[in-house]
Amino acid sequence: MLAVPLATNQQKAAIHALKTRAGLDDDHYRDMLRQQVSATSSKNLTRDQAGRVIEHLKLIAGQSNAPAKKKPLAEGALALDGPYAGVCRALWLAGWNLGVFEDRRDTALVAFVERQTGLKAMNWLRDEKDGRAVVEALKAWIGRTTDVAWDADAKMLRLRGISIARWRKLAVVRAQCRKLAEPAPADLDAKSNDELNRLQAELGRRVRRLGERRKRA
Q1: What does DSSP assign to residue 6?
Q2: Which residues fall within 8 angstroms of residue 199, CB to CB, at 6 or more apart?
Q3: Residue 82 near residue 127 (C-beta atoms within 8 A)
Q4: What is the DSSP string of 186-216?
Q5: Less Cβ around it within 10 Å: N or C end of the chain?
Q6: How many CB atoms lie within 10 A of CB 165?
Q7: pLDDT in tens, 91-124
Q8: How many CA atoms lie within 13 A of 53 on its CB side?
Q9: Do 20 and 14 form a contact (C-beta atoms < 8 A)?
Q10: Cβ(85)–Cβ(91) under 8 Å?
Q11: Which of 171, 129, 164 is nearest to 33 (CA)?
């Protein structure tokens, strides 16, 4: 039987470079590998598997063969980059849609992190220890007023075939429904990630309006 050629060092380097560019932390990265090639590390990937992972990461990172035109940043947006940019942005947006944070912009996220932890953006975006500290700080702050099941047993997630990122999307929607005192949609688990994003945004508007009414009462 012919030996299956393993991934080259060049492929492995490309995978880790794209992982960083895509803003994946270690948990999200391992979830992606499990979904794409049923692995948890690039160490023993075949060349074919590595190629599939590279192409998938390129899609996540928004990289294509054609040179992309840079769009001007929206007001308050920052060109945040690094392994923890994506997950921290997602948590900040979740907090905004749960009525915890009053400003959804990147500038507010960076200011919050520096105020609560003393960490500068360039550090927590790239340093693993600081990045994880920021993630936990955001989860804890949101948890002060909102009950969100951020984390789940890895084995259970594998059995259900969902990533931690999707689990958190579902958890945020369920928490929003509890805030609004209404049941979660019956088809919630069947919704696509795009549908969950739209639902989270829609419920977020209602949660914020509810919060404003309570402040005026």
Answers
A1: B
A2: 173, 185, 191
A3: no
A4: TTGGGS-HHHHHHHHHHHHHHHHHHHHHHHH
A5: N
A6: 17
A7: 999 999 999 998 888 888 888 888 877 877 656 6
A8: 31
A9: no
A10: no
A11: 164
- Tell me the per-residue pLDDT of 183-199, one tens digit each, with 9 for 90 and over: 999 999 999 988 999 99
Tokens read off for 108: 């507010």
The confidence score (pLDDT) of residue 123 equals 63
Q: Read off the pTM.
A: 0.63
The Cβ-side half-sphere exposure at 101, using a 13 Å CA radius, reads: 26
Taking CA atoms, 157 is separated from 7, 84, 150, 152, 153, in Å, by: 27, 21, 13, 7, 6
Q: In this structure, are residues 117 and 136 in contact, taking their beta carbons and an 8 Å threshold? A: no
Note the residue count of the chain: 217
Go through 133-142 and write b for each residue having 16 or more CB atoms within 10 A of its CB, e for each that does not.
bbbebbbebb
* DSSP assignment letter at 102: S
What b/e string do you get for 80-118 counting C-beta neighbours within 10 Å, with b at 16 or more? bebbbbbbbbbbbbbbbbbbbbeeebbeebbebbeeebe
